[in-house]
Amino acid sequence: MIRSAIALAILGGATQVSAADDRYIIQVDNDKKGVVKALAKKLGGDVKVDGNGFFAATFTGMDLSTVKGLLNNPHIKLIETDSRRYPMSAYSDDIGDPMTQQLTPYAVYQSQADQVTFNANSGMKVCVIDSGLDSSNTDFNWGAITGDNDSGTGNWFEHGGPHGTHVAGTIGAADNNQGVVGMAPGVDMHIIKVFNESGWGYSSDLAHAANLCAQAGANIINMSLGGGGSNSTEENAFANFAANGGLSVAAAGNDGNNVRSYPAGYTSVMMIGANDADNNIADFSQYPSCTSGRGKKATDDERICVEVTAGGVDTLSTYPAGMAAFASATADGAAFEVSAMENTGATSGDLYFMGTAEAVDSNASGKVCLIDRGNISFHDKVANCENSGGLGAIIVNNESGMLYGTLGDTNSTTIPAVGAALEQRTTLMAATNASINISASDYGYMSGTSMATPAVAGLAALVWSNHASCSGEEIRNAFKATAQDQGAAGKDVYFGYGIVKAAAADQYLLANGCGGSGGGDTGGEPEADISLSASGYKSRGAAFVDLSYSGAATSNVDIYRDGNLITTTANTNSYTDSLGKVRGSFGYQVCEQGSTVCSATITVNF
After folding, report:
1. Is residue 220 classed as helix, strand or coil in its secondary structure?
2. In the sheet where 556-561 sits, what is the strand order?
3. pLDDT tens digits for 268-277?
4. How many helices (H) and strands (E) does the chain have?
5. 354-387: per-residue pLDDT in tens?
6. Dihedral of CA 9/113/561/586: which sign?
7. Range of lowest pLDDT (15-24, 59-68, 279-288, 351-360)
8. CA 116, CA 186: separation in Å to the nearest integer?
């Protein structure tokens, strides 16, 4: 087994940077937007995004209250901070040689994606809001990929770093005997590049992108990104996408704490956590509470915390051409597992043990340095090896497991350097010679909830392609109903309902139908013409939904909310559901009792 790793700067986290940017979102009806934009420009505003029902602008040197005071116009509905959104990814490494063969990432097997066949004729489309997709990678069905350019970020088909290309590969890398295979191989994708050259974007960019995804005909939105602070403009955009039958998934975050990140924290967006290949929760995966508010106003909502997890640790996927590193090594001719640090190149020679390599040692000249971890930086160890005349460096971990490291942003060394596991030390100490080879690759590993999120997006496209009559909310519910329970028994804040299982979700929908009412789902239209309308309203702060329906032939009907049976009641063509004090989107369906003869799902938003 050969293995390599490169470091990727951590851009993720639930950090909000807003007021310092002097950028704000102004909500206004489209027919009045021109007047308000003109006023904003007159006051020094620089419009950055012109979206549906809002625009975003910077006001240099002005805080939120100042902007609100100056833009005192009756046509303005709301002015709010435009929060930053960041890609969420930790570290990356390569394993195997996908440049010469097709490799299947472990998460494909773990999630049962290999047990379900993707229906390429289903019309599924995943919208990827990220850093762009590198057109040089041939492991995609490019005839099925479109995109939009966002102002200030450049062409969607030119990468802004490896993040977006890695994410897209996990979703839909083609099954073409090269590279890797995605969860929904060759699925149609629409790419929207929202991250600037500094590696972040704004919440208004996401709101605008959500509208572009809908216009492109996307069923699913993937957002391997997030940040602190919610705002209604962004929230409304994803609520509208859900209300029209779509499914949005977003990363929980990589800070390993209980902070709620957005857009994952909105009820209309499915929050995704990360697990590893051993079904353990990733130590970086955020785990916000499902409770909001305090005291008597506290409410529980499973849609504002982690709902499911998927593989997100050491996830193999596509990279922009040559941006990943592939490493191999041998000792006395036998291959052993290594992780690449930096410096491409190949070398071989006698092994020389330098201890912790804290000083130049002329005995290392013309040899491959074998070095123990500890006391000084990896960079200084490799530099001392090179300054001694060493040809390459193997640094062995001082604790169990593989050593993944980097030589840092100011790396001044040139010789190839790799990390090795502590378990290899005895063998390496006994070896007389070694070889190291580090070369550029189009495939690499990353870790983060950013990697788990596209796994779920791809799995949603995979399962949904075989159940075309379902809504995004029903796919969401099927995943939760069939996830493999991990961690504490039952639902918990780390795994949510558990690890997504595609085959189990597929069988669940076959057996129970999209609404979970039993009898199976054929992937076609509802079996009978039950019409349903729903009207939501609030009284004294409590939410109510009036349902009016017709066409049911049985004396009783089953009423479903979000795919769950809430009551069986007499067929009187009407029913009122009392929800209490809630916020969010709720999907309703009426079925003939004990049957899959059902209405379409109607969504009500509060």
Report:
1. strand
2. 564-570, 556-561, 585-592, 602-605
3. 999 999 998 8
4. 11, 35
5. 999 999 999 999 999 999 999 899 999 999 999 9
6. positive
7. 15-24
8. 14
Residue type, 88: M
Burial class (CB in 10 A: 0-12, 13-18, 19+), 192: buried
Residue 456: partners with Cβ closer than 8 Å, 6 or more residues away: 249, 270, 272, 308, 310, 479, 500
Provide the CB-side half-sphere exposure for 344 (13 A, CA): 8
Stated pTM of the model: 0.72
Order of all β-strands in the sheet with 574-580: 531-539, 542-550, 574-580
Retrieve residue 578's tokens.
């009392």
219 backbone φψ class: left, alpha, beta (φ>0; ψ -120 to 50): alpha
Q: Is the peptide bond before 74 cis (omega within 30 degrees of 0)?
A: no
pLDDT in tens, 567-596: 999 999 999 999 888 777 788 899 988 877
Tell how far CA 138 is from the center of its chain.
Answer: 22
pLDDT above 50 for 348 = yes
At 127 the three-state DSSP class reads: strand
φ/ψ of residue 425, rounded to 5: -60, -45
Strands (E), 498-563: 531-539, 542-550, 556-561
DSSP structure class, residue 412: -
Specify the residue for token string 């001392």. Answer: 384
